[in-house]
Design a protein that fits this description.
Layout lengths: L1 E5 L1 H10 L7 H5 L6 H15 L5 H7 L4 H12 L7 H14 L4 H10 L14 H6 L9 H14 L1 H7 L14 H14 L4 H11 L2 H19 L7 E5 L9 E3 L7 E4 L2 E4 L18 H15 L14 H11 L21 E6 L2 E6 L4
């Protein structure tokens, strides 16, 4: 079990910036001991604040290592009861889009989330009857927020989202009176239709005036500048079973969403919800050197980067990978592939892996 240490000063800063009507953190900051219920309430409160567009970057700046857990909590709320809450879905999409450029966790989460979630602009598909049946909260997202978020998703991974969503309902938004909606929509359609820079410029001039194009560019630049304040590393530290789990300012790994796991302070997604006693942490003795290497590996996994582990035979390279696979839910034999290479490996034989086993095929080496 790990203890994740939350900076009380960071929570205090968040508490001071949040509107009093949304501020539940202050009552917990005054407590000397945090019970398990207190810790859950704090994490749920932070997850809800993450969906407030005015506080998304504030939460991300001070609690970046916990972003994945907060996103997973909100995803569970969106799909509670097997039905999509369109209000929460839209708010999550807008918040998530703001995190794409500064958090690898957000990028990986978006790829998983939209596999079975509707597009950001789902409301454009609704008939008037369907739209009236949707229940929105008091802070319903504006269409300009949704189209701005849509553009950020496209800019982060154009190939994926271009093919994933049906863009036909967006065309009608080129005629709306809202300049921001027209501008964001035009940029989206330019990306979706593979326009060249010259074609895009001509297209934008047909949809927007010169002043409107300039205003839109200034708005986008302001968003970039806000994101740049997230250059720090956040304010969450970790420790391995060295502190009382009821100490104020700390949450333990058991408090996190069942869809994530903390590995030496790095929160990673799980392929399946965590089950009690599914993984025994004592399978790997977490001495200081092992923790350092495991944390480095976890950071690389969180960044979606390939990793090369070097070391002599028997130093623990395979053990690290197997432990990482186990704690992240990759427990099936087919989910971790081992290929033994040595001096006797024939370079003229290509080795490919197919579902169900290995397939050897001869190839010509020039």
């Amino acid at each position: 079990m790990e203890n994740l240490e939350l900076s009380l000063s960071s929570l205090g800063i968040i508490s001071r910036h949040v509107d009093k009507s949304h501020n539940e953190l202050s009552q917990y900051l005054s407590k000397q001991i945090w019970s398990q219920q207190d810790r859950q309430c704090i994490l749920e409160c932070l997850a809800q604040l993450l969906l407030e567009k005015d506080y998304t970057l504030l939460i991300a700046r001070h609690l970046r290592p916990l972003i994945l857990d907060l996103l997973e909590r909100n995803a569970e709320r969106v799909k509670t009861g097997g039905r999509i809450s369109h209000d929460l879905h839209e708010r999550l999409c807008v918040a998530l889009s703001k995190l794409l450029g500064i958090s690898p966790d957000a990028q990986a989460f978006a790829a998983r989330y939209f596999n079975d979630a509707p597009p950001v602009f789902q409301r454009l598909f609704f008939t008037s009857e369907e739209s009236s049946a949707v229940q929105y909260g008091p802070k319903r997202m504006k269409l300009r927020d949704l189209m701005g978020a849509t553009l950020r998703f496209l800019q982060s991974d154009c190939a994926k989202f271009r093919m994933l969503w049906d863009w036909s309902p967006c065309v009608s938004q080129l005629l709306t009176s809202d300049v921001m909606v027209r501008g964001y929509t035009a940029h989206c359609l330019a990306l979706v239709s593979h326009m060249t820079d010259n074609q895009k410029t001509i297209f934008l001039r047909k949809v927007l005036t010169s002043d409107e194009i300039l205003a839109l560019e200034e708005t986008q630049q302001l968003e970039v500048e806000k994101a740049l304040v997230l250059a720090n590393q956040g304010s969450v530290m970790w420790r391995q079973e060295k502190a009382n789990k009821f100490t104020r300012g700390q949450v333990v790994s058991e408090d996190l969403s069942s869809n994530v796991v903390a590995v030496c302070g790095v929160v990673l997604p799980r392929t399946a919800p965590r089950q009690p006693q599914q993984v025994n942490p004592k399978d790997l003795v977490l001495v200081d050197s092992t923790c350092r290497n495991l944390r480095r590996l976890a950071l690389a996994v969180a960044s979606q980067k390939p990793v090369l582990l070097e070391g002599p035979i028997g130093c623990g390279k395979t053990a690290l990978v197997e432990f990482m696979a186990a704690v992240t839910g990759h427990i099936k034999a087919t989910e971790i592939l081992k290929v033994q290479l040595g001096d006797q490996t024939d370079s003229k034989v290509s080795l490919t892996y197919k579902s169900g086993g290995f397939n050897y095929a001869n190839c010509q080496i020039s």
